[in-house]
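Changelog-adjacent note: as of this version, every example in the card shows the full chain rather than a window. The one below runs 146 residues end to end.
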Amino acid sequence: MDECFPVPDLAAHFAGEWRLDREILTAGGDPAGEVTGTATFTEEDGVLVYREAGEMRLGAYTGPVTRTLHYRPTAPGRADVHFDHGGFFHAVDLRAGHWTTDHPCRDDLYRGSYRVLDARRWRQEWAVRGPAKDHVIVTRFSRPPG
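Full-length structure tokens:
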């Protein structure tokens, strides 16, 4: 396992803008699609709000994508992540710089991992398995230059 970058304070580490590059892979590892765009974390009333906007290319489709998540701090370096509609997504604890988690979604299971590489780069991966879905989503986040 590569070295990880501990994150004792999620809000301080993630605050601001990130470039995101996402690969969507088939279960066999073949490219199926991609997303490029930006993600921002802003603190609002004690909640770290994640907003992403980008362009997806998936098969013949090309178009905009957005997502909003709420990271609600539970302790230093830890948070419960909720969808923008309020439903619970997963917990995260990055004090050691990495975390694995699961999220059941109907009959499918999302198995996720976070890995913080350094102060300017981190990675998130979701392996999605079940009767409706079977793919892997890998997102690399990096601070924009400047």
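Structural remarks: The longest strand covers residues 61-75.
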